[in-house]
Design brief:
The protein is α/β, with parallel strands linked by helices. The protein contains 15 helices and 16 strands. Strands 1, 2, 3, 4, 6, 7, 8, 9, 12, 13 and 14 form an 11-stranded mixed beta sheet that branches. A 3-stranded mixed beta sheet has the order 5-10-11. The protein has a two-stranded antiparallel sheet with strand order 15-16.
Length: about 375
């Protein structure tokens, strides 16, 4: 399990805890099985775990798909690190991560990786007197806030970016993820791209050693804590900010333009994306060029075992994602995710056909 050691680091215990929760969920889903002697998940239930970034979309897709196909999705939003642990332990049908594994890690762990959508991570804040979308930040200033170098909202560095704005002297309270998180990986990848100090002192990681701040579990936990603490700033997937009515900040992008988070800004960042199946479609999308690009953008990925034990279960999971690709784009857009382009998911399904097998026989197409 080389990828676990590489990704988790000091967060291994968090991943193991998440894995235990996934195992419990699988056991509970077995209660719905028509076979009283079954100890695995129900025959009409797909089991997945991982990314909280993707959870709003997977939940809506699951509800829509159940109405169409009568198949349920039991998805546990336990964080990307726990999702990787669960698929490597073979306790779920698929894992979900926003921190893609390398081609070497996929090979060594016998996994297939493919993207399901693109979204954006956004700074969220709770500062009296500052309306949503009003505050402007650049990458260096955001990094210095999370490094603990900027400690009040009226700091000269923030004031310089917001001339004429009345900024309070309120102390800045940093909120970050406490669990292994692909959203954290995306956020710290951006900070590493724009701040040499952040890159050398902290770096990009799913479980970084945060210099300051209070940790919360999951995007929902970060959102809740930011809403509770005056003067706070954190980061979540954009849909969480929208659903919770949270204030967001503008960010200065690679072209020097201040932009607000939006579906069009995420799509602009993905315009020049080149998806390589040989690399597991892994694609960094932070600090992308373009005057309207949102700088903290990334894809969410699904992981499945190449060597499957049950063709029916593997096929059931692949049918769900095939349906999502072909029928779920409008839902993705409504939740401010960018759908995967048709030409890309056609390549993804070719990878399924070539790499996901039972005893050497292809599972897809069915």
């Amino acid at each position: 399990m080389r990828s676990l050691k590489r990704i988790y680091g000091r967060g291994a215990l968090l991943a193991i805890t998440g894995l235990a929760l996934v195992a419990l969920a699988v056991a509970l889903s077995a209660c719905g099985s028509k076979s009283s002697g079954s100890t695995g998940p129900a025959a009409d239930t797909i089991v997945g775990a991982g990314s909280t970034f993707a959870e709003p979309l997977y939940s809506k897709w699951a509800s829509d798909y159940q109405g169409v196909a009568g198949v349920k999705l039991n998805y546990q939003a336990v964080g990307s690190s726990a999702g990787i642990a669960a698929i490597e332990a073979k306790t779920v049908d698929f894992g979900a991560t926003d921190a893609p594994l390398s081609a070497a890690d996929l090979q060594s762990n016998g996994l297939v990786q493919f993207p399901t959508m693109i979204g954006g991570a956004v700074p969220v804040l709770n500062v009296s007197g500052i309306a949503s979308g009003e505050l402007k930040l650049d990458g260096l200033t955001l990094a210095d806030i999370f490094l603990g170098k900027i400690t009040t909202w009226n700091d000269p560095a923030i004031a310089k970016l917001n001339p004429g704005m009345s900024l309070p002297s309120t102390a800045i309270n940093v909120v970050h993820r406490s669990d292994g998180s692909g959203t954290s990986w995306m956020f710290t990848s951006y900070l590493s791209a724009v701040s040499p100090t952040w890159k050398s002192q902290v770096g990009a990681n799913t479980t970084p050693s945060w210099p300051v701040g209070t940790g919360a579990k999951g995007s929902s936990g970060v959102a809740a804590l930011v809403q509770q603490i005056d003067g706070s700033i954190g980061y979540v997937e954009y849909t969480y900010a929208q659903q919770n009515g949270m204030s967001t900040a503008q960010l200065k992008n690679a072209d020097g333009m201040f932009v607000k988070p939006s579906l069009s800004a995420f799509a602009a960042a993905a315009t020049m994306a080149t998806w390589q199946p040989s690399e597991g479609f892994a694609l960094p999308l932070v600090n992308e060029p373009g005057p309207t690009s949102w700088p903290i953008t990334g894809a969410s990925y699904v992981l499945m075992q190449k060597d499957q034990q049950d063709a029916a279960r593997a096929g059931m999971a692949l049918k769900f994602f095939d349906w999502a690709y072909t029928n779920g784009a409008q839902t993705a857009n409504s939740l401010n995710y960018v759908p995967i382009p048709v030409k890309v998911y056609k390549v993804v399904e070719k990878v399924w056909e070539q790499q996901i097998t039972v005893s050497g026989t292809a599972v897809w197409p069915q």
